[in-house]
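User: what does the whole thing look like in 3D?
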Amino acid sequence: MTLVVRIHPPAPLYQGGIFILISCPFFTETRTFNLLKEASETMTGLTTQFAFESLPQKQVTELANDVLAFMNFVSADTKKGTHYQSQSNIEEARTKIYQNVFMKDRALFGCIVCMSGAKNDFAKQNAVKAFLANSWNSTTKSSLPFDREQDFIDLFIKETQVNRVLNMFVELADLRVNNSRTRKAMLSYVLGSRNLPLWSVKYRAKLKRILTHCWNVRYINILYRILRTKSTDVLKKRFSDKEKKFLYQDILRHKNAGLKDIEAIECIAFILGIKGDYKVPLLKAFFDARTDLKAGKSLPMEVLEGIRSSYHKDVSKDEVIKLTARKMTQKQKKNLQKTAAKAGVAVTFNPMAFTMTELFIYAYEMGLSKDVEKAIEVKAEKLANTFPIRYEKIGIIVDASKSMEGSKKQPLKPIATAQAMRDVLIKSASTGTVKIAGGFKNKDGLIIPAHSTSLAKQIIQLLKQDMDAIFIISDGYENSPSGRIDEVVGIARHIGVTTPIYHVNPVVASETATGMRRLSQAIPVLPCANPEGVALSFLKPMLETDPVNGLKTLVNMTLPMIEKNKEVAA
Amino acid sequence: MKITEMLKGCEPGKIQSVGYMQIVPLISKYVDDTIFPPTIKASTTDYGRLVITNDTVNDVLVPTGAAIVSKQRAQDHATHKGAFLKKNTTVKIDTAACIQDSQGGYLNSDNGYHLSVLPWGIREQAYNVRDRQAYDKLWPVLRQFNSNLGILHDQGHLSAYLDKFEEDMNQFIAEFELVPNMVGAIVLINGMVIGVERCPNYQYWEHMWEPLIRESYGSAVFQFVSQTKERKNIPKPITRVPLSDSRIKTLDDLEKEFDRVTSEEDKVVTQIIQSFLKTKFKTDSEQKVGKTEMVSVKNDQFLGQAFTKDGNVLYCSLVTTQDFMKKPRRNIRRASPDWDDAKEFSM
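Assistant: Here's the predicted 3D structure for the full assembly of 917 residues, as structure tokens:
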């Protein structure tokens, strides 16, 4: 059996372009994770503020366990409830698991979120909220200095979708978090954006809430009065020196260099609800569309639809789709495929802009088109190349039982993730054998979850085929009967079968202390809400066997990512 | 009437087994889609008088042992008697029972409620007093039930049980899964059948899945655990046959052993179920609407209700009687090898 450990240049985990090929007759996790550790140590000279070695053994083990639970949770947590767990149960478990790490080491908290996958916006929102809502003081525990925490905040905000960042700011405002770091983050994000005119028409109410929170109601009232008096034609009116100073102090000094002063001021006037003769095209279109819908074709679809439903009730919704088809975001284009087809409008979207899981969910609704299929294949190949461990011959069992269909709020998410992960795993190996347990396939070959959970027989069959490794993609709830996998794997180990078996779990479980349901104590769990974040999961066995080095490796693997972000920003 | 008639057209699905509970799914293509789950309005005009209104355009069937649990400041009610309601009709049940012993107020039909089914351990007593007009008839048994589960406050409230065990029930329901074309289930605890459920169609069963499996039969698991927690080494259910590692030397052996225990588990459950399929029930008619009839049924082992339409049983809800549960367990013979294959003794 040949085990290839690959360290790829583009992946932040493995900078340095190391490529290691070893022959390994019996795979051991320790061997692999020693390689991971060595790789991470070579890629950065940065060190942590305090050494994990200096902590008592009990404390470091406890910290590693909390980190593991948090890793499990954050890798599969998607805000919504699951097939089994209500949203409130999940929230309760989340708070507990988050607090355990945050109170013990804020830097580790940031590192885990950083490694949880580029598309894990929910974890990033939670992390930013936690950092901003809990001021740094003398009792704060962190293995990295204060400015590193700011780097985490900057990175997370940058990587999160605009609407989610604004929602997060609104939540902070509702929680009355109003320290200087929070205000700075809000103002620089909102006013420093080149897209302020677009955001103004799209997120007007949220922006007003955020600015009111930063500047307080009295200040907003003064600003409102100044801007309203100029509102008949802002460009022609001149501001007094006193007014200019006032405006500079809190608006213009934050504004993006690509925006003119007067454009930024008009946006603020618009956000505050001042009606006027605006010159910024989008703001002008907003008001013009009230009398002539076509004048609003440059507006975002949902904004123009709002205007249509209020001022042009006799016009069909399809007209809005026609007018804004070119301006839609990729997500809107994806979500509107069915409506657009009904309206006879061709709306093409770029499938490469979405995660594999999102593409599978889309395919369930709209069918698996050639371009979506191609995008899934390309993405699977790309992600497979970032895998630290590569086996030649793998077996994959996909749990397609009823529970994999997910909750009503996120239907088909687990099975979509399972299929995405299946494709990535297949691409990561020379040969892959897939077994589907339960369910059936629709006309596009997509798995429809059904039946009970019976996976043990497939494990035996794959073990008999002498695989290099077996991956079971399952939510971890077994019922035909429960515990049979544990029995089978136990006996297989007893008779000398050493084939590594991994359990890839796309679903959180609030009822377990680790936040993840296991099929067997003998099978390590790799939590995975999306294949993009699975790299973090491979650190887990190292944390279990060697907590000190596991924690150090986690920090050292993360630092280059925030360094790179700083360089790009600079 | 026999269970073979009640389950006519059904086939057993693959057994689901978690801990001490097993479910044998009942699969059927014979369904009646004209009968809908109970999306009804419920109110009370007096304690013990439940008014159920079906203001939809479909015929609905109120299940046996239905419990109306509300967040209103009102007395929750339950009725053992299921009822069939044609579209836009109302029935008044004056034999309903209050299921909160210290709560005043009448249920208002404009407000929402949660439809539950009486816990398994209460169903028999509810059956025995189903015709008695007494609003407090279930309080003593409800207090006893809650007390046995360690509920110290609001012992006469069904809602106290639902609140206390909410998380356990969520976890419990999580373990079992609906399967395609499922219309019912035979439920076992520790290898003993405790209930048989059949519904008119898939949607109805899906609607009743949580009230029945989570809340009603779930309570039987909690009762079983609380009764046996003092005992050490509780044996695995007879329906759960372990893999015998002494027989296994290779992966081929493991596969053979896996097939053997799977087959043996199926045979054990089959044997248990076959033992009661042909026993007869005594029936009493309770409601007749057109060609439909709701009947109460009872024999030594089970009691409950069945609903027929044109002579075919579309719905039944049976629980095992306490007397039968107390009887010494008959030995279930595990499948043994075929004697024809046995070799003659030699040395």
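In plain terms: The domain at 356-533 of chain A is CATH 3.40.50 (Rossmann fold). The first helix of chain A runs from residue 29 to 43.
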